[in-house]
Write a structure and sequence with these properties.
Number of helices: 10
Distance between the termini: 45 Å
Number of strands: 12
CATH topology of the largest domain: Rossmann fold
CATH architecture of the largest domain: 3-Layer(aba) Sandwich
Radius of gyration: 19 Å
Mean pLDDT: 92
Order of helices and strands: EEEHEEHEHHHEHEHEEHHEEH
Strand order of the largest sheet: 6-7-8-3-9-10
Protein name: ABC transporter ATP-binding protein
InterPro entries: AAA+_ATPase (IPR003593), ABC_transporter-like_ATP-bd (IPR003439), ABC_transporter-like_CS (IPR017871), P-loop_NTPase (IPR027417), Siderophore_ABC-ATPase (IPR051535)
Shape: globular
Oligomer: single chain
Family: Belongs to the ABC transporter superfamily.
Helix content: 25-40%
Membrane topology: Peripheral membrane protein
Low-confidence stretches: none
GO molecular function: ATP binding
Strand content: 25-35%
Length: 267
């Protein structure tokens, strides 16, 4: 496996509360890696640590052979893009204005807005299908449209690595599929390394090249969806009794939750 990001013995705490415990994880280049696990297991913290938004108490994150702690903020922002959960921007901002913010790492006082920036902006908006919304105000967009615009902003950074934290949060079923189909298309078309946090196991199994289960700040299991989506592993990681079948359309594992472990024990 050609590794793009290496997380090595990473530990991280919020005050006295330990969140990640000597966690190690290779993230393959040019693939979609999905992080999943119970609430509070450290998924979002790990994603933010990969983007150096949290300072670890131990271990390191390497981008190729480079420890990300040695990169300045602008250099890192040219390498790793992050879309956080529930991002916000003023309703009266236009779509183009928001997407332009993705070019910030490439600009300086000596290098203002350039032809390269304009071309990157156009590619990002065309690739996400929001070019026709260019002059619309954010407050006038639907939830699905707005999420595409945020993804366009991240793509405008033209980073090799794209991290997305719950990108389908608060979207209806149609827009969830629309958003994740877009992510998969962009991964295929541009070869970007994508790291996703998802709660829905069936969406994770459908879109992941590599699936990582976290529990209590550690890696509980890592592998292909076919390797991880077993009834025994789901019971161990999520405390849920389930039936796992093969999706007759996509050929991926499909989890049918039955009951929690606690309700089974009570019965």
């Amino acid at each position: 496996m050609d590794t793009r990001i290496s997380v090595d013995n990473l530990s991280l705490a919020y005050g006295p509360i330990s969140v990640l415990n000597a966690l190690s994880l290779p993230i393959p280049k040019g693939k979609i890696t999905v992080l999943a696990g119970p609430n509070g297991c450290g998924k979002s913290t790990l994603l933010r640590a990969i983007r150096r938004l949290h300072k670890p108490s131990g271990g390191q994150v390497r981008l190729g052979d480079v420890d990300i702690s040695t990169l300045n903020d602008r250099m890192l922002a040219r390498q790793i893009g992050l879309l956080a959960q529930s991002p916000s921007a003023p309703d009266d901002m236009t779509v183009e204005e928001l997407v332009r913010l993705g070019r910030y790492p490439h600009q300086s006082m000596m290098q203002p807005w350039s032809g390269d920036d304009a071309a990157a902006l156009d590619r990002a908006m065309a690739g996400t299908g929001v070019d026709h919304l260019r002059k619309r105000r954010l407050g006038s967009l639907s939830g699905g449209q707005l999420q595409r615009v945020w993804i366009a902003m991240v793509l405008a950074q033209e980073t090799d690595v794209v991290c997305l934290d719950e990108p389908v949060n608060h979207l209806d079923m149609a827009h969830q599929l629309d958003c994740l189909d877009l992510v998969r298309q962009l991964n295929a078309d541009f070869g970007r390394t994508v790291v996703l946090v998802l709660h829905d196991l069936n969406l994770a199994a459908r879109y992941a090249d590599r699936l990582v289960f976290l529990r209590d700040g550690a890696i509980a299991a890592s592998g292909t969806p076919e390797e991880l989506m077993t009834e025994a592993t789901i019971a161990r990681v999520f405390d849920v009794q389930s039936m796992v079948i093969t999706d007759p359309v996509h050929g991926r594992p499909l989890c049918i939750p039955l009951r929690t472990q606690s309700s089974t024990a009570a019965a």
